[in-house]
Amino acid sequence: MQAQEAMTKDVVTVGPETAVGEIAGLLVRHRISAVPVVAEDNRVVGIVSQTDLGHRSETATEKKRKWWLEAFANPDAKAREFIKSHAHEAKDIMSRFVVSVSPQASLAEVADILDSHRIRQVPVMEGGKLLGMISRADLVRKLPEVTVSKPAARSDNGALQKAIWEQIKAQSWLRSAYVSVQVRDGVAELWGAVDTADQHRALRVLVEGVPGVVRVEDRVGVLPQMVAT
What is the DSSP string of 77-113? Predict the structure, then answer.
């Protein structure tokens, strides 16, 4: 699935001269965390987020440094902070560096970008022009539309055991030498030990996701911390 299939097309936007108060009202009213700033040709020139409005003179939330740090603060940085807290139009407070995705980006790529930049939503753009917005909520909304069904159990136990073992060995977070697996009629029986409870859960999820596995019998233990380290 691609970004263009999950994105919100009816996007709330503002212009460069939109007032700060109006932007704040839009964020609250539409329950969104950011709005793109677009020019007349639908070209994205920036974005205003809740973070950009977090330190404002109107609410007495301007950034303040301890007196001994104030003396060493960069004058340009202080000037930028003043603009953020006192300017009245989108063009002065917006972030000009806009993280975006293409309409053909996979949902996995979108999720990675949201995580790596620690943002909640990202514009979908092509040729610098806005096509839509895709958020974490949009990714969640797509989950019910995906039908997940497991294929019938494989009749070849050896082939299924090999497929599971290849998946186990491919994981960098798991010491595969400490784990063994046996398969009978689609039932995967796990034995051995892992370093942590998180690895234990991840191993079970991994094996359950291998096509042909109908059930997992989990007999894996967690090593005591002294042994694991």
Answer: HHHHHHHHHH--BHHHHSBSS---B-TT-BHHHHHHH
Collapse the DSSP code of 63 into the 3-class scheme (helix H, G, I; strand E, B; otherwise coil) and give the result.
coil
- C-alpha distance across the termini of the chain, in Å: 41
Question: Quick one: tokens of 15?
Answer: 């212009």
Q: Is 40 helix (H, G, I), strand (E, B) or coil?
A: coil
| Contacts (Cβ under 8 Å, ≥6 apart) of 134 | 3, 6, 7, 8, 101, 110, 121, 122, 124
Cα pseudo-dihedral 36, 46, 54, 27, rounded to 10: -10
Indicate whether this model's pTM tops 0.70. no
Q: What are residue 46's DSSP bridge partners? A: 37
Does residue 106 or residue 74 have the better pLDDT?
A: 106
**For residue 95, how many other CB atoms are within 10 A of its CB?**
15
CA dist., res. 212 & res. 73, Å (int): 61
User: pLDDT digits over 50-100, tens only?
Assistant: 888 888 878 887 767 665 556 566 777 778 778 888 888 999 999 988 999
Phi, psi of 147 (to 5 degrees): -90, 120
